[in-house]
Design brief:
Helices cover 27% and strands 37% of the residues.
């Protein structure tokens, strides 16, 4: 699943916000019982691994000049929640990237 979110921020600001807010990702998972691991292979690419209720979801966030692309690999068993997950990513991502 690929969720692009447009932004008008400098890349440095997008990086800063993602780094500061990445610990909050676990709170987005229903039930609040999630283990989230993030890494930055390079300055415009964050990987993430979410483990909750016996399921694992891996993904990445790619920072581009005018959009941030969230790519999430949902297991086949969870494909039915794709619209809900995409909507949550879009909602939280737009709030994160809003001009202040």
């Amino acid at each position: 699943m690929r969720v692009p979110i447009a932004h008008d921020l400098p890349r440095e600001e997008v990086r800063r916000r993602l780094r500061e807010r990445s610990p909050e990702i676990a709170s987005f998972v229903p039930g609040g019982i999630a283990d989230v691991t993030t890494a930055w292979p390079d300055e415009d690419h964050m990987t993430l691994a979410v483990r909750a209720m016996g399921q694992g979801i891996d993904g990445q966030v790619i920072i581009e000049d005018h959009q941030v692309v969230f790519e999430v690999n949902l297991p086949l068993a969870l494909s039915f929640v794709e619209p809900m997950v995409a909507g949550a990513i879009r909602d939280k991502g737009q709030k994160l990237l809003a001009k202040k």
